[in-house]
Design brief:
The chain is an alpha/beta fold and 435 residues long. The chain has 18 helices and 14 strands.
Amino acid sequence: MMKIQKLTPETKQDLLGNLLKRNPGNYGAYEAGVREILDKIQTEGDRALFDYTEKFDGVRLDGATIQVTEEEIQEAYKSMDPSLLDVMRKSMENIRVYHEKQKRNSWFDSSPEGIILGQKVTPLKRVGVYVPGGKAAYPSSVLMNVIPARVAGVDEIIMVTPPGKDGRVSPVTLAAAKVAGVDRIYKVGGAQAVGALAFGTESVPRVDKIVGPGNIYVALAKKAVYGYVSIDSIAGPSEILVLADETASPRYVAADLLSQAEHDELASAILVTTSPALAEEVSRQTDEFLKTLSRADIIRKSLENYGYILLADSMEEAIEAANEIASEHLEIQTAQPFEVMTKIRNAGAIFVGPYAGEPLGDYFAGPNHILPTNGTARFFSPLSVDDFIKKSSVISYSREALQKVHQDVETFAKAEQLTAHANSIHVRFEEEEAQ
């Protein structure tokens, strides 16, 4: 049974403190090992990359075998069930259409005095996408990372993913990469793959930004190379919060909570409700579902550690708690879900109404499923087209326009004792002032 607690300032603080333990920043014991891997990749390049791949993945690669060949991609693509490929293409189209609406254009404003100010939007040149391997192959993450980059106009998309012991990459991952339009794929994973993308090696080109989820080593490696390259975020374990009242279906709520709890033992599933009857029935329904779900052992541990049912006195109190928790996924199953939605300030993705189950966002609806975790929805956003562009300011003044303000600029510069700054503007009018 999921534990049911009264929502009080104390239980809320206990919950928030418990969730913070899952933050990748708290895993200091791993950082030295990650740093050593990154240092070796930076100094030794391919040699270190191949050594680590042999050590961690059990396969020896070289410069001729590290890149996935076109033949391997075609073979994987042809091995796929056509119906799965069809679903991938439908999903990709939904993702593309949604992200097309995020595109930004350069803009320029001009004035009669000869001033032109603007912003030039430029896609990143080369982006690296990390895709987890092993038993957990996530073709949906391939689409979610790659399609916004394509929509943004990124020139080249490099994908890295760990190989199996046979030296091959998961066929479903390769098929998704082909559907999405990845340019090059390399058989490397872990912190060593992040290092290769950040610093470049003889075989793997350096990129401008690294995106995509991974394990704790990948998360810490991305954190460590930030500054050499840009990153999307430091992903933590998955989480869901459901806001519900007495009108919600306990079966829907229980099923949705378990959909995230099955990710891993650190996943968090929280129900905040105003209905004691709903709380009791959701707890009972989770037990019923666990009798048939394939990952029941993982789910039980997840719920034991990070599963909560919190009883609130009012919907306002429930909403306040949801905003403080700032969950990655937030479902609203109430009598007036859109009204509640307007009061939500902090959430990665908001699912409104009883038929917007969280897996819709994971696979198909179109909005990105790479979302801020561990309370970072207070200041971070989902992965978007904005992650794959950069903006440059544009400034142009005519002589006449500068003449009107040059003394103001010089006064400001002198106030900061930066006389060379002042002089840079002054020299443009020194002949006039000398007369």
